[in-house]
Amino acid sequence: MDLSPLKAALADVVAIPVTPFAEDGSIDTAVYRALLRRLLDGGVRIVTPNGNTGEFYALTPDERRTVTELTIEEVAGRATVLVGVGHDVPTAVAAAEHARDAGAEMVMVHQPVHPYVSQDGWIDYHRAIAEAVPGLGVVPYIRNPLLTGDRLAELADHCPNVIGAKYSVPDAARFGAFARDAGLERFTWVAGLAELYAPSYFAGGATGFTSGLVNVAPGVSMAMLEALRAGDYPAAMKVWEQIRRFEELRADRQSANNVTVVKEGLASLGLCRRDVRAPSRVLPEAQRAEVAEQVAGWSI
Questions:
Q1: Entry's Pfam families (predicted)?
Q2: Is residue 285 part of a domain?
Q3: 141 is a catalytic site residue
Q4: Which is catalytic among the residues 141, 167, 197, 201?
């Protein structure tokens, strides 16, 4: 099976849609569809339902399936769908199989949340999922700084459908070494810490980056991608300077407000309620104005 089109699809702005909630706390499906259409109209060509910005860990299994199905229906071939899966192995395998049956092309495997993760066990976990869906591209989400690049290569030796990695360790030098130890040309490398890290990770070999900010301002994220693809780092850093404070607010206190700030930005534009689920929490009034001011200064 030729997976090269899927590898190429990852080399882009990998949008992580938010999951909007209605006043009663349920998923607001109409708003979700509208937000997806806005992303697609803004140039987004790959989306990850059930990512962390979509509050993956706060959704029920039924809700995660609903989000997957809504995304595939609304995208309708206009973009590649990379579904987030995770939790225990049976749950992750079932989610991957559901994504396949619903029409997704790829799955992103969330970093295992088990408190005791060995590197051999990391391979076992991802191998079980990848082998269950050999026709889908599989993208591990790597947040563990102790994992070495040769282990990703070992996983792909067993499972050739492992075609890329979302690398989210905040260390550009470590990323450069990891990618080369795994095989720089063997995988598509996605900078998993969004726009603030994208320029430094592109210098190390990444060709795509994830984004939550793209929910609020698709044009801003696409402008950074265009600059990075052209190798125009001064232009990319102008975008970086523009969105720096917004992303710093998201990263503050170990990313306590990662999703909260994105939803606040959408709320300031009248596109989505600001509601998030525990353990996240809405911003206090004092910070809402700052987010709105940031967003108002962008070319939306």
A1: DHDPS
A2: no
A3: yes
A4: 141
Flag whether 280 is in a domain: no
Does 166 qualify as catalytic in the annotation? yes
Could you tell me if residue 286 is inside a domain? no
The boundaries of the domain holding residue 136 are 1-215
- Is 91 annotated as ligand-binding? no
- What's the pTM value of the predicted model, to 2 decimals? 0.96
Number of domain units in the chain: 1
> 143: domain CATH number?
3.20.20.70
To 10 degrees, what angle do helices 29-41 and 218-229 make? 40
- Write out pLDDT tens, residues 172-226: 999 999 999 999 999 999 999 999 999 999 999 999 999 999 999 999 999 999 9
In angstroms, the CA 235 to CA 38 distance is 25
Assigned domain for 237 exists: no
pLDDT tens across 162-180, in order? 999 999 999 999 999 999 9
Identify the active-site residue in 166, 167, 201, 263.
166
Contacts of 10 (CB under 8 A, 6+ apart): 46, 82, 106, 137, 139, 163, 164, 188, 190, 207, 208
